[in-house]
Specification:
heterodimer, A: alpha/beta, Rossmann fold, 3 domains, five-stranded parallel sheet, about 40% helix, disordered C terminus, B: alpha+beta, 60s Ribosomal Protein L30, Chain: A, 2 domains
Chain lengths: ~375, ~350
């Protein structure tokens, strides 16, 4: 299939792996930001092709994983109301809050629906004028334009029974939070290709300079990731710290301007709490005042207050690249996809779920 | 079928009962009429015509295979199939996986009050077509009607009896190192076809379910003297779950070659969009066969004579270790463990 098969070619993969082996002279630690990349690495066994000097750490780029548990609780509370149709991307349904997950809310009689686009949720609101339709607007910059469009259209059309529960987060502040931590081990980053398709990569340039780290905008297919690693290693070996674009078939330096304008029209930058990590200043998006009538938290009186996580879960350390999933004592024993202690074991993009699905023997190898 | 055809052929007077009512399951005259005019007249086996409480079956002295399955699917009709075909082929295929020749089916129907009679008639016609295609007989049945909102139109249950005419032990414990794993065709079509209709996803061309009966090709293997060690039809959990189940039950290692597993381009594209792995997507007309390596080529050649198995090929082999584990050699030449899904595959965020 075009645009897929040619990026999964075994011969080309071997050539890239060989190029990486020839370039590397010492140990390097590289973090892929995006959970989609983490899963591709595990699924295709890309790390097996790498020389032992290279360690890949898995970043916080999993929207499901970093959505705070309080917000999951709010989602469950909303979904349980008889007047609400609660719409979400499929990934979010299994994430545990303190009072269960959205699938349980559905089983208990809540009207919970999987949608593929926030615009589908808006259509549901138009078709069900006697119901309140709430969309769970999670994600990074990738999903922000469509969510902004849904709210923008709702306002244009004067739709009063549509709102969104917002938990939008941004990549660059997360990278800065990781780099400025005293525990940081990351020496180079693979930035998320889809995020940069929307935002471009100018905002990464000052970070690369300030912290002297190479940042390579990278795609999601095996060859993309191998090439991204190669470019990153080459920079590290040559002592450079630049923003480079591996994913040129999708990303331009300035990104998608109309999408950015739409985001800025509807959203503003706000502080956000990241599950497992804590609050990061200026790290999320919230609705601007003219659109705040579409904020589900404002429309419905929801219980507030912060919530304690399962103390055993180390997903925060995993999301910051401090620990690997198999270094968690609960991994694969007390914490499994059927009984997750934290969101990283749930999401199809979560690092713990990736290790559980593709690498259960890794624990045996280490232990 | 057009509405006009329906009016011509539907045996229930539609002017009086355009939809199923509670009394159609109430045990009185209306239920009697539905069973007599629609079901017995359409399926027409001798056993049904005797109108006795139970069927009496003529069976050769041999081992029997017996299986049951319930069918719930939304929508009832989808590209390439419908709930009626699923209910017949699904149970026939389960019998075939023992290497049994399917003979008799029971048919239980749970109908939702308000179900359009025309819809029921179309399901009944589809069941008849599937029954004729597979050569089985419906010998006993049951009808219940539930209140509107308590069902999803039609739920079906079929149980099946088949006769085993071979001496093989077709089961996971017969699987051994050196066996070839044969896959009967491309994977993932049923799951994507149903999902596309259910969720209103539009692709360039409609993806049709692979829903099909499998008894003929399986019996052909056995009749040709292929020493079949194990068979498994691929249903909800897809190829991955079926093979993992066998690896665990047989305590064998199974190695699959990703590049040899056929997935149609449109199915692969849909999976990429949704974030699904085709290895876990449902099928309704595919199976895996474990046969000795030396007979694999002949088995594949035999299978390919049947249209439903035209793309059959060896996709892997049974290895000594790691026991109880499925390993997939990926398209880029690396290996990973294949596990069962926990829960359903859910569409991803981005």
């Amino acid at each position: 299939m075009r645009f897929i098969e040619e990026y999964r070619d075994a011969e080309a993969a071997r050539r890239f792996a060989e190029a990486i082996r020839k370039t590397v002279t010492r140990e390097w630690t590289i973090m892929e930001i995006c959970g989609g990349q983490t899963h591709a690495i595990m699924k295709f066994g890309i790390d097996e092709l790498l020389p032992p000097q290279i360690t890949l750490l898995h970043g916080p780029g999993c929207p499901v994983c970093v959505t705070p548990v309080e917000l999951i609780d709010k989602a469950v509370e909303l979904a349980s109301r008889p007047e609400v149709i609660f719409c979400s991307f499929g990934d979010m349904l299994r994430v545990p809050g303190t009072k269960g997950d959205l699938l349980s809310a559905k089983a208990a009689g809540g009207d919970v629906r999987i949608v593929y686009s926030p615009l589908d949720a808006l259509q549901l609101a138009i078709k069900n004028p006697d119901k309140q339709v709430v969309f769970f607007a999670v994600g990074f910059e990738t999903t922000a334009p469509a969510n902004a469009m849904a709210v923008y259209q709702a306002k244009q059309k004067g739709i009063t029974n549509f709102s969104i529960l917002v938990s939008h987060v941004l990549v660059p502040p997360a990278i800065e939070a990781i780099l400025s931590s005293p525990r940081n081990r990351v020496q180079g980053f693979l930035a998320a290709g889809h995020v940069c398709t929307v935002m471009g990569y100018t905002e990464y340039e000052p970070i690369a300079k300030k912290y002297h780290v190479p940042i390579v905008v990278t795609g999601f297919e095996p060859l993309d990731i191998l090439q991204g690693i190669y470019l990153c290693v080459k920079q590290l070996e040559e002592g450079r710290a630049e923003v480079e674009n591996q994913y040129t078939r999708s990303v331009r330096r300035e990104g998608n301007r109309p999408a950015q304008e739409l985001i800025r029209e509807v959203f503003e930058v706000v502080p956000r709490k990241w599950r497992g990590i804590g609050e990061i200043p200026q790290s999320g998006l919230g609705l601007r005042e003219p659109y705040r009538q579409f904020d589900a938290e404002r429309r419905f009186a929801l219980s507030t207050g912060s919530v304690e996580e399962a103390s055993e879960c180390i997903s925060g350390l995993i999301l910051q690249g401090v620990k690997k999933p198999y270094e968690c004592p609960a991994f694969g024993t007390r914490c499994t996809p059927e009984h997750p202690l934290g969101a990283t074991m749930v999401s199809s993009e979560g690092a713990c779920a990736a290790y559980f699905k593709y690498r259960r023997e890794a624990k045996a190898r280490v232990g | 079928m057009s509405t006009q055809d329906f009016h011509l052929t539907c045996p229930i007077p539609i002017q009086q009962y355009p939809a199923v009512v509670m009394a159609h399951g109430g045990g009185g005259r209306l239920m009697h009429q539905l069973i007599e005019k629609m079901f017995v007249a359409t399926f027409g086996s001798d056993n049904l015509r005797t109108r006795h409480d139970s069927a009496q079956l003529q069976l050769p002295t041999a081992r029997l295979a017996f299986t049951t399955d319930s069918y719930v699917v939304r929508p009832l009709f989808f590209p390439g199939g419908d709930i009626g075909k699923l209910a017949v082929y699904g149970t026939v295929n389960d019998l075939a996986m023992s290497g049994a020749r399917p003979l008799y089916l029971s048919l239980g129907m749970i109908l939702e009050e308000g179900l359009p009679m025309e819809t029921l008639w179309q399901v009944v016609l589809s069941i008849r077509e599937a029954v004729q295609a597979t050569g089985v007989q419906i010998v006993t049945g049951d009808t219940k009607v539930v209140d509107r909102g308590k069902g999803d139109g039609v739920f079906l249950n079929t149980s099946g009896v088949g006769v085993i005419e071979h001496d093989l032990l077709i089961a996971p414990q017969s699987v051994r190192a050196g066996d070839a794993v044969i896959l009967s065709g491309d994977i993932g079509r049923h799951g994507i076809a149903v999902m596309a209709v259910r969720e209103g996803l539009e692709f360039e061309s409609a993806i049709e379910s692979d829903c099909a009966p499998l008894a003929e090709p399986v019996l052909a293997l056995i009749e040709a003297g292929i020493e079949v060690h194990c068979l498994r039809d691929l249903t909800r959990g897809g190829l991955a779950s079926a093979v993992v189940e066998i690896a665990e039950a047989a305590q064998a290692g199974i190695q699959l070659e990703e590049s040899r597993i056929p997935v149609r381009e449109d199915v692969r594209g849909a999976c990429e969009i949704l974030g699904f792995d085709p290895l876990y997507v449902a099928n309704e007309g595919r199976f895996v066969a474990f046969v000795p390596r030396a007979q694999a080529e002949r088995a594949v050649e035999l299978l390919r004579r049947f249209e439903v198995c035209a793309e059959a090929q060896v996709v892997g082999e049974v290895i000594e270790s790691p026991k109880g584990t499925v390993v997939l050699r990926s398209v880029i030449g690396t290996s990973r463990v294949v596990d069962m899904l926990s829960g359903e595959q859910l569409p991803r965020i981005c």
